């Protein structure tokens, strides 16, 4: 009796690749799997109990063995039992899940940052050193990596199943996720939020490299300009330095050392100058006026690409003094190169 | 305290001369009817049509997924297929399934009324449903729509040029059909109960439909608003969701899920009502802990409104709101657990028989238990990150909606078929169908849980080859499942003419509907009954029958 070759191939494939759980390739993965196994056990026990009750009673009290039904109102004690026990289990799940959630969504302070820009239907990665990738992502193992992600068009979602992390990539808003890869290897990268026709084509690979290999990769694939350097160039060419000179009496506030500080706003609120804040102030300056300044900055909505904004944000994050700002300013004014009405600038 | 029930001799039964089916003749007598039973039959026919349409889309989706490459359908055709599958199945089948057919037919009879409070509005709601259905078909014929049933902005507003507006209007109109049905039920249950029919003497089916009606009336308008905003944003460029105009794309999801999460309870609650009836009847016992089961329906309806953001845990909602919504999600799981245990306990010391409705009900309990518990996986914040937007979601949702709701619907259809048509369905064939459905279901959707944990995203037209084996299993199961669903339509249609005559109470059940002739009169009751017994009072039934025998003898 021969087994169908197709079937045999399937069985063989399934058994050899043991396709029940994805590989654990990040520090998060064992934590996620632990909760998963707890939940699986909960389900198994639940199904067994319900199954035992239903089948047991069905056998014992079927009409042939139990011709007469005994009418029972109910039992408050029993009902309280099967209210409280599931409630307790669900609450344990809640706490456990919440701890895992905070672990996955709160990056460690020392993590390296990579920017991800999603668009229909590709993933662009921007490394701080200026390496650009499309539909791939190279990361080192043994080091926390934070992804700061944004979408250029619709909702996307960045999912790396082997790392057990995923986060929505939202149009016009930075979202972050982090992981610490443990095993070198090539892993799936999926867009999991339906994003139009070629949604299933918005996939790629995440390559985790040992620190040495990663170093080799970074050196080999750099474009020569870091994100901050690109940003500096953009800052000058858009004429930002005309107002943000860093002088006390300048029309725009001093940007050096701004990142990470609390900013007192004109409307009395305080805002933290993080990446999202820096991006928003460029696109939507009139709603982010710092105390003591006039709302005179024009909006740059639609004039700078998402990558350009990332460059500017990286530049501002790296800006510690205004020395170079003023240097470029003198150069710019002397040659009158700064555009008065900035057009679409791509890095 | 015991009850012996012997089934009546059906060989002498005859169809009643006058009943709601033959009271009037001609197509117009159906299309202009105010009779809740006829409207229920109109609904039954139309939702069955849409069910098989939606099923055909699902079949194409599963066939495409047989192979990893996107080879059977083009990517946008595939996207249209799963979108239409979702829209047709949810808005045109699951939402109206039990309430508009069984609920419409049974609620007035169960509470001892002659009709619903507003018969004309009831008919209007069927017409609105049909208009919604026609719009959906129009959108399909014109070229379909590929937003996914969730209409996520800004994809639906700015990035697709398919028939979003037509489909949106379809859902908008169909929503009003659901609002009117809910309104009708609420008023009927409040105002038209027969004398003596107190709230706690009502069958649990009425309770669960009442809870679902509240959700329909309060939730559906929010969906209507969300859809109108999408349509306005597409047509005149309103900037509510568009980030470039200062709108918030996440706002749409808040609005959408504010309806669409309660909507899953709109779909499942009436099904739970069916299960309560069926379990009680075939164990010849009152439902264990009637009050707890009744209130758990209400609790689900109330909590159901405060869990919508659990669809958005990874969307960048604040961590603390995620905490609150996760906690509430855990709480909403408890009433469902109570129901499952109370149904199981109903069997205890019963006198159980295993007719087709009971088999479907067992199927419901098994599959809904798995579906419900896997919902806890998704409500648990950290686990949700890995599982959401994958096939795990698809499997969970289908376990609850198909394994749960559709099983309940079929249990109810078989259980009340004798009442609705006056004839029995063929018992052994229908048992075969119930078992086939169960096996086919498990084979279709269980592999999808594994696929989901492996990370396969949903709504994928093509997928990496390592996921193929499980997809092949799933498609194979879908074939079996398809057979399981085709069988009932065939033998139920057959039974309309050739089925055994059922007689008024073939199951020896206690509900008011079973004390009437089958099929009932147009006015249900010649005189409004006085109700002096509780639901599922089998002793009352035994007593009544003994008296009848004495009187006749």
How would you describe what is shown here?
The complex is a heterodimer of chains A (about 350) and B (about 550). Chain A is α+β, with helices and mostly antiparallel strands and about 350 residues long. Helix content of chain A is about 40%, strand content about 20%. Chain A contains eight helices and 13 strands. Chain A has helices spanning about 5-15, 30-60, 75-105, 210-220, 225-235, 275-285, 305-320, 325-335; strands at about 70, 110-120, 120-125, 130-135, 135-140, 145-150, 155-160, 165-170, 175-180, 185-190, 205-210, 260-265, 270. In chain A, the strands form three sheets. Chain A has a five-stranded mixed β-sheet with strand order 4-3-2-6-9, with helices on one face. In chain A, α2 (about 30-60) packs antiparallel against α3, α5 crosses α7 and α6 (about 275-285) crosses α7. With about 550 residues, chain B is mainly α. Chain B has a single domain, classed as Cytochrome C Oxidase, Chain A, CATH 1.20.210.10. In chain B, α3 packs antiparallel against α7 (about 205-235) and α8 (about 250-285) packs antiparallel against α11 (about 355-380). The longest helix of chain B has about 35 residues, at about 75-110. The interface between A and B is large, with 91 and 100 residues. β1 of chain A pairs antiparallel with β1 (about 1-5) of chain B.
Structure at a glance:
Chain A has 347 residues and is an alpha+beta fold. Helices cover 38% and strands 19% of the residues of chain A.
Keyword list:
heterodimer, A: 347 residues, alpha+beta, Immunoglobulin-like, Cytochrome Bc1 Complex, Chain D, domain 2, 2 domains, five-stranded mixed beta sheet, 8 helices, 13 strands, elongated, disordered C terminus, B: 553 residues, mainly alpha, Cytochrome C Oxidase, Chain A, 16 helices
CATH architecture annotation of chain B = Up-down Bundle
CATH architectural label of the largest domain in chain A: Sandwich
Instruction: State the low-pLDDT regions of chain B, or none.
Output: none
Question: Strand content of the residues of chain B, in percent?
Answer: under 5%
Beta-strand percent range of chain A: 15-25%
CATH class of chain B: Mainly Alpha
Total helical segments of chain A: 8
Order of helices and strands of chain B: EHHHHHHHHHHHHHHHH
Task: State the separation between the terminal residues of chain B, measured CA to CA.
Answer: 26 Å
